[in-house]
User: Fold this.
Amino acid sequence: MTMKKNLLTAMFIAASMGLANAQADQRQVVEGGGTGPFKSEVVGDASCPRFTVYRPQNLKEVVASQGKLPVIVYANGACYDNNVEMRLLLSEVASHGYVAAAIGPYDEEDVMAQWREVLLFNYPETKGEVIMANGERIERLTEEQLKARHEQQLKEREKAAKKEKKSKKKQEAPPTFFTTYPRMLLEVLDWLTDQNATSDSEYYHCLDLDHVAAMGQSCGGAQVLGVAHDPRIKTCVMLNSGIGDMSMMGSTVETLKDLHQPMFYMIGGPADIAYENARLDYERIADNIPVVMLNSKDGHSGTYYEKYGGNYAKAVVKWMDWQLKGQVGQSALFLDDEYLKMKFPEWQGVRKNF
Assistant:
C-alpha cells in the first residue's frame, strides 16, 4: 500500500511540474476581459493542475505585436488553494499585458458569491457602503443578524461535538489538496520556464522571464517572502500583508534580510489587520532595498470585489508597468505625493531608498 501511495504521489508531482506541454483545456472570460488593451482570459491547463493562469487572449498575436510578456506568480489570502476571490484583479492585470499564474486549480465558482460572504462577516469599518462589481450593495449585518448567526454557529458546534463524542473518533485531518506552501510559487515559475522553451507549447517564446514579480494577499504575502530570495523574482507586491513579529509559512522577520528587489506594500489603513505588520516591515527592510507602502481606507478586503478589482488593481498595474516594463512615468503614483493625492485623495504613501 505504501509503495502504491508513493507511486501515485510521484505521478501527481510529475504532472504538476509540467512534464506535459501546456494546452489550455478550460477557459473563462471575466468582466469582458478587463479594461486593458488586451482582453484577458482565465485558463486551466491539465499539465499544471494545481494552478490557474490569467493571460491575454490570442496570446501569440499579442506577443507578436507587443513582445514577450512579463510574468506574475500569485499566492492567495489565507494561503488558500483557490484564487477565485482575486479573479477580478488578476483578470484586469492580465489585460494590461501580463501572464499571471495563481496558486489553486481552475475553478468557475461565482466570484461575487465568494465576496458576499467575506464582506458580510468582515464589513470594512471605514467604508460607508460596499457595492460589488455586479452592482449589488452589501449592507452591514444588524446586531440582531449577528446575534442570530452567532447562535446558529454555537448550535452547529454543539451538534458536531456531540456527534464526535458519540462516534469516539478523532477528527480527520483536512485533505492535503487544500494545503499550499511557498515553494509552489517557484514550481509554477519553473513550469512556465519549461513551457517557454518548448516549441509545441502555447507559451513558447511568449514569456519575458527576465521580468518576474511575486505577489500575495494576506497570508499569501508570507508565501511571497518565503521565495523572495530567488534571483528570478525582480519585485514583490504585498497586498494587505506583512510579517511583522509573526512566524507564518516559514517566514519571519529574518526573511526580510533575504530581499534583493523593490517592494510594494498595498495596505488598507489602520482598519487592516495587516497594518501593523506592514508598518514594521517597512521600518525593518534594509536601507539598500527600495520600498513603497500605500495605505487606503478599505480595510483588509481592499477593493477586490469592485469592478475590475477597483483601485487596488490600478495600483498593481502601475507598479508592474514601472518595475517590469520600465515605464518610468508610472512611478509617479509611488514617488510623488501630489500625484498620489490627485489620483486617490484618501490614500497615504511613504517610500524609502529610491
Observations:
- The longest strand covers residues 207-217.
- The CA atoms of residues 235 and 261 lie 5 Å apart.
- The longest helix spans residues 143-167.
- Residues 1-19, 174-178 have pLDDT under 50 and may be disordered.
